[in-house]
Write a structure and sequence with these properties.
homodimer; 3-stranded antiparallel beta sheet; 3 strands; 63% helix; 13% strand; DNA-binding
Chain lengths: 107, 107
DNA sequence: TTGATATATAAGTGAACACTTATATATTGA
DNA sequence: TCAATATATAAGTGTTCACTTATATATCAA
Protein backbone atom coordinates (compact mmCIF):
# COMPACT_ATOMS: atom_id res chain seq x y z
CA UNK A 1 0.00 0.00 0.00
CA UNK A 2 2.35 2.61 -1.34
CA UNK A 3 -0.28 5.34 -1.26
CA UNK A 4 1.04 6.24 -4.69
CA UNK A 5 -1.35 8.68 -6.26
CA UNK A 6 -0.86 10.52 -9.43
CA UNK A 7 0.53 13.86 -8.41
CA UNK A 8 -1.08 15.52 -11.40
CA UNK A 9 -4.52 14.30 -10.38
CA UNK A 10 -4.51 16.40 -7.24
CA UNK A 11 -4.04 19.68 -9.10
CA UNK A 12 -6.72 18.68 -11.53
CA UNK A 13 -9.07 17.73 -8.71
CA UNK A 14 -8.79 21.04 -6.90
CA UNK A 15 -9.11 23.04 -10.10
CA UNK A 16 -12.89 22.70 -9.93
CA UNK A 17 -14.84 24.86 -7.46
CA UNK A 18 -17.50 22.23 -6.79
CA UNK A 19 -14.85 19.71 -5.83
CA UNK A 20 -13.06 22.23 -3.65
CA UNK A 21 -16.34 22.90 -1.86
CA UNK A 22 -16.89 19.18 -1.40
CA UNK A 23 -13.46 18.82 0.13
CA UNK A 24 -14.24 21.68 2.48
CA UNK A 25 -17.49 19.98 3.48
CA UNK A 26 -15.58 16.79 4.18
CA UNK A 27 -13.13 18.72 6.33
CA UNK A 28 -16.06 19.45 8.63
CA UNK A 29 -17.63 16.02 8.68
CA UNK A 30 -17.68 12.83 6.70
CA UNK A 31 -20.74 12.64 4.50
CA UNK A 32 -22.75 10.54 2.13
CA UNK A 33 -22.76 11.16 -1.60
CA UNK A 34 -26.23 12.65 -1.31
CA UNK A 35 -25.17 15.05 1.41
CA UNK A 36 -22.16 16.08 -0.63
CA UNK A 37 -24.30 16.69 -3.68
CA UNK A 38 -27.10 18.58 -1.93
CA UNK A 39 -25.62 22.13 -1.90
CA UNK A 40 -25.00 22.11 -5.63
CA UNK A 41 -27.39 22.63 -8.45
CA UNK A 42 -26.19 19.66 -10.45
CA UNK A 43 -27.58 16.22 -11.17
CA UNK A 44 -26.83 13.26 -8.97
CA UNK A 45 -24.55 11.67 -11.58
CA UNK A 46 -22.59 14.90 -11.93
CA UNK A 47 -21.91 14.88 -8.20
CA UNK A 48 -21.00 11.21 -8.36
CA UNK A 49 -18.51 11.97 -11.11
CA UNK A 50 -16.92 14.71 -9.04
CA UNK A 51 -16.56 12.26 -6.19
CA UNK A 52 -14.89 9.87 -8.56
CA UNK A 53 -12.31 12.47 -9.50
CA UNK A 54 -11.64 13.08 -5.82
CA UNK A 55 -11.30 9.35 -5.26
CA UNK A 56 -8.91 8.99 -8.19
CA UNK A 57 -6.81 11.78 -6.75
CA UNK A 58 -6.69 9.96 -3.43
CA UNK A 59 -8.38 12.87 -1.70
CA UNK A 60 -11.29 10.88 -0.33
CA UNK A 61 -11.95 7.36 0.79
CA UNK A 62 -15.30 5.64 0.70
CA UNK A 63 -16.92 3.11 2.92
CA UNK A 64 -20.13 1.36 2.15
CA UNK A 65 -22.66 1.85 4.92
CA UNK A 66 -25.95 0.25 4.11
CA UNK A 67 -27.13 1.80 0.93
CA UNK A 68 -25.09 4.90 1.54
CA UNK A 69 -21.44 5.53 0.82
CA UNK A 70 -19.71 7.45 3.53
CA UNK A 71 -17.03 9.69 2.11
CA UNK A 72 -14.12 10.67 4.27
CA UNK A 73 -11.41 13.21 3.54
CA UNK A 74 -7.86 12.08 2.99
CA UNK A 75 -5.90 15.31 2.94
CA UNK A 76 -2.52 13.68 2.32
CA UNK A 77 -2.31 14.48 -1.40
CA UNK A 78 -2.92 18.14 -0.65
CA UNK A 79 0.43 18.09 1.05
CA UNK A 80 2.07 17.97 -2.36
CA UNK A 81 0.35 21.19 -3.31
CA UNK A 82 1.32 22.74 -0.03
CA UNK A 83 4.94 21.72 -0.51
CA UNK A 84 4.95 23.18 -3.97
CA UNK A 85 3.52 26.44 -2.71
CA UNK A 86 6.30 26.68 -0.17
CA UNK A 87 8.68 27.45 -3.02
CA UNK A 88 6.93 30.79 -3.24
CA UNK A 89 6.31 31.55 0.37
CA UNK A 90 9.42 33.65 0.76
CA UNK A 91 8.14 35.89 -2.02
CA UNK A 92 4.95 36.96 -0.40
CA UNK A 93 6.75 37.21 2.88
CA UNK A 94 9.18 39.52 1.12
CA UNK A 95 6.28 41.51 -0.23
CA UNK A 96 4.72 41.79 3.20
CA UNK A 97 8.12 42.74 4.59
CA UNK A 98 8.40 45.46 2.01
CA UNK A 99 4.95 46.66 2.89
CA UNK A 100 5.88 46.58 6.56
CA UNK A 101 8.99 48.61 5.89
CA UNK A 102 6.99 51.08 3.91
CA UNK A 103 4.41 51.40 6.65
CA UNK A 104 7.16 51.87 9.20
CA UNK A 105 8.71 54.57 7.07
CA UNK A 106 5.55 56.58 6.69
CA UNK A 107 4.26 55.97 10.22
CA UNK B 1 -6.09 48.94 -9.65
CA UNK B 2 -7.75 46.66 -7.18
CA UNK B 3 -5.49 43.75 -8.04
CA UNK B 4 -8.72 41.88 -8.54
CA UNK B 5 -7.93 38.67 -10.31
CA UNK B 6 -10.30 35.89 -10.97
CA UNK B 7 -9.79 33.46 -8.13
CA UNK B 8 -10.69 30.56 -10.34
CA UNK B 9 -7.99 31.44 -12.84
CA UNK B 10 -5.26 30.70 -10.33
CA UNK B 11 -6.35 27.12 -9.76
CA UNK B 12 -6.67 26.62 -13.45
CA UNK B 13 -3.23 28.11 -14.08
CA UNK B 14 -1.43 25.84 -11.64
CA UNK B 15 -3.28 22.76 -12.86
CA UNK B 16 -0.85 22.44 -15.75
CA UNK B 17 2.64 21.04 -15.06
CA UNK B 18 4.35 23.18 -17.68
CA UNK B 19 2.96 26.33 -16.11
CA UNK B 20 3.94 25.17 -12.64
CA UNK B 21 7.46 24.62 -13.90
CA UNK B 22 7.48 28.08 -15.46
CA UNK B 23 6.42 29.61 -12.17
CA UNK B 24 9.20 27.74 -10.44
CA UNK B 25 11.69 29.07 -12.97
CA UNK B 26 10.44 32.57 -12.34
CA UNK B 27 10.87 32.06 -8.62
CA UNK B 28 14.59 31.71 -9.32
CA UNK B 29 15.01 34.56 -11.77
CA UNK B 30 12.95 36.72 -14.04
CA UNK B 31 13.20 35.50 -17.62
CA UNK B 32 12.31 36.15 -21.20
CA UNK B 33 9.61 34.19 -22.99
CA UNK B 34 12.28 32.29 -24.88
CA UNK B 35 14.10 31.32 -21.70
CA UNK B 36 10.85 30.18 -20.16
CA UNK B 37 10.00 28.10 -23.21
CA UNK B 38 13.44 26.50 -23.65
CA UNK B 39 13.16 23.58 -21.19
CA UNK B 40 9.96 22.33 -22.75
CA UNK B 41 9.43 20.36 -25.89
CA UNK B 42 6.63 22.53 -27.16
CA UNK B 43 6.32 25.12 -29.89
CA UNK B 44 6.97 28.79 -29.26
CA UNK B 45 3.28 29.68 -29.53
CA UNK B 46 2.36 26.97 -27.04
CA UNK B 47 4.76 28.51 -24.52
CA UNK B 48 3.41 31.95 -25.30
CA UNK B 49 -0.11 30.71 -24.62
CA UNK B 50 0.94 29.27 -21.29
CA UNK B 51 2.42 32.63 -20.39
CA UNK B 52 -0.86 34.23 -21.32
CA UNK B 53 -2.72 32.00 -18.90
CA UNK B 54 -0.26 32.93 -16.18
CA UNK B 55 -0.74 36.60 -17.01
CA UNK B 56 -4.52 36.27 -16.95
CA UNK B 57 -4.26 34.67 -13.53
CA UNK B 58 -2.15 37.59 -12.33
CA UNK B 59 0.74 35.28 -11.58
CA UNK B 60 3.26 37.06 -13.79
CA UNK B 61 3.89 40.56 -15.01
CA UNK B 62 5.63 41.46 -18.23
CA UNK B 63 7.90 44.28 -19.19
CA UNK B 64 9.04 44.97 -22.69
CA UNK B 65 12.82 45.09 -22.90
CA UNK B 66 14.01 45.62 -26.44
CA UNK B 67 12.64 42.77 -28.47
CA UNK B 68 12.34 40.61 -25.39
CA UNK B 69 9.61 40.45 -22.81
CA UNK B 70 10.88 40.04 -19.31
CA UNK B 71 8.53 37.98 -17.22
CA UNK B 72 8.48 38.44 -13.49
CA UNK B 73 6.69 36.36 -10.89
CA UNK B 74 3.81 37.84 -8.95
CA UNK B 75 3.11 35.25 -6.28
CA UNK B 76 0.23 37.11 -4.68
CA UNK B 77 -2.57 35.06 -6.25
CA UNK B 78 -0.97 31.90 -4.92
CA UNK B 79 -1.81 33.18 -1.50
CA UNK B 80 -5.44 32.33 -2.16
CA UNK B 81 -4.49 28.73 -2.76
CA UNK B 82 -2.36 28.72 0.34
CA UNK B 83 -5.18 30.13 2.40
CA UNK B 84 -7.54 27.51 1.07
CA UNK B 85 -5.08 24.74 1.91
CA UNK B 86 -4.90 25.97 5.46
CA UNK B 87 -8.40 24.63 6.00
CA UNK B 88 -6.84 21.19 5.80
CA UNK B 89 -3.59 21.75 7.56
CA UNK B 90 -4.87 20.55 10.91
CA UNK B 91 -5.68 17.22 9.26
CA UNK B 92 -2.26 16.34 8.11
CA UNK B 93 -0.82 17.70 11.31
CA UNK B 94 -3.16 15.31 13.09
CA UNK B 95 -1.89 12.51 10.91
CA UNK B 96 1.71 13.44 11.56
CA UNK B 97 0.94 13.70 15.26
CA UNK B 98 -0.52 10.24 15.17
CA UNK B 99 2.57 8.99 13.40
CA UNK B 100 4.76 10.75 15.94
CA UNK B 101 2.86 9.13 18.77
CA UNK B 102 3.23 5.80 17.11
CA UNK B 103 6.95 6.26 16.64
CA UNK B 104 7.31 7.35 20.24
CA UNK B 105 5.45 4.31 21.37
CA UNK B 106 7.59 1.84 19.48
CA UNK B 107 10.89 3.65 20.05
C1' DT C 1 16.45 48.74 -45.91
C1' DT C 2 16.66 44.09 -45.24
C1' DG C 3 17.11 39.83 -42.79
C1' DA C 4 17.21 37.71 -38.38
C1' DT C 5 15.25 37.51 -33.75
C1' DA C 6 11.60 37.71 -30.14
C1' DT C 7 7.13 37.38 -29.34
C1' DA C 8 2.05 37.34 -29.83
C1' DT C 9 -2.22 36.20 -32.12
C1' DA C 10 -5.29 33.50 -35.41
C1' DA C 11 -7.20 29.42 -36.85
C1' DG C 12 -7.74 24.65 -36.67
C1' DT C 13 -7.70 19.95 -34.25
C1' DG C 14 -8.09 16.15 -31.02
C1' DA C 15 -8.48 15.16 -26.19
C1' DA C 16 -10.32 16.18 -21.82
C1' DC C 17 -13.98 18.22 -19.07
C1' DA C 18 -18.46 19.00 -16.89
C1' DC C 19 -22.66 18.18 -17.64
C1' DT C 20 -27.05 15.81 -19.02
C1' DT C 21 -30.55 11.71 -19.33
C1' DA C 22 -31.04 6.84 -19.11
C1' DT C 23 -30.05 2.80 -16.84
C1' DA C 24 -27.96 -0.63 -13.75
C1' DT C 25 -27.03 -2.34 -8.96
C1' DA C 26 -27.45 -2.81 -4.17
C1' DT C 27 -30.03 -2.05 0.11
C1' DT C 28 -33.88 -1.09 2.96
C1' DG C 29 -38.55 -1.37 4.60
C1' DA C 30 -43.50 -2.35 3.85
C1' DT D 1 -41.61 -9.73 -3.12
C1' DC D 2 -41.92 -5.03 -4.43
C1' DA D 3 -41.43 -0.05 -4.32
C1' DA D 4 -38.41 3.42 -2.76
C1' DT D 5 -33.75 4.98 -1.86
C1' DA D 6 -28.73 5.59 -2.64
C1' DT D 7 -25.38 5.43 -5.71
C1' DA D 8 -22.58 4.39 -9.85
C1' DT D 9 -21.85 3.84 -14.72
C1' DA D 10 -22.94 4.46 -19.81
C1' DA D 11 -23.62 7.25 -23.53
C1' DG D 12 -24.09 11.58 -25.62
C1' DT D 13 -23.15 16.76 -26.01
C1' DG D 14 -21.22 21.34 -25.91
C1' DT D 15 -17.17 23.77 -24.03
C1' DT D 16 -12.55 24.26 -22.72
C1' DC D 17 -7.81 22.88 -23.18
C1' DA D 18 -3.19 22.22 -25.04
C1' DC D 19 -1.30 21.89 -28.94
C1' DT D 20 -0.06 22.73 -33.88
C1' DT D 21 1.14 25.67 -38.23
C1' DA D 22 0.75 30.05 -40.27
C1' DT D 23 1.14 34.78 -39.82
C1' DA D 24 1.59 39.44 -37.85
C1' DT D 25 4.38 42.90 -35.25
C1' DA D 26 8.23 44.96 -33.20
C1' DT D 27 13.19 45.37 -32.56
C1' DC D 28 17.90 44.79 -33.61
C1' DA D 29 22.01 44.47 -36.42
C1' DA D 30 24.29 44.40 -40.92
Amino acid sequence: MTSSHNREAVYRAIADPTRRAMLLMLSKKESSATELASPFDISQPAASQHLRVLRDAGLVTVERKGRERRYRLDPAPLHDVHNWLEHFERFWNAKLDALGNYLNRIA
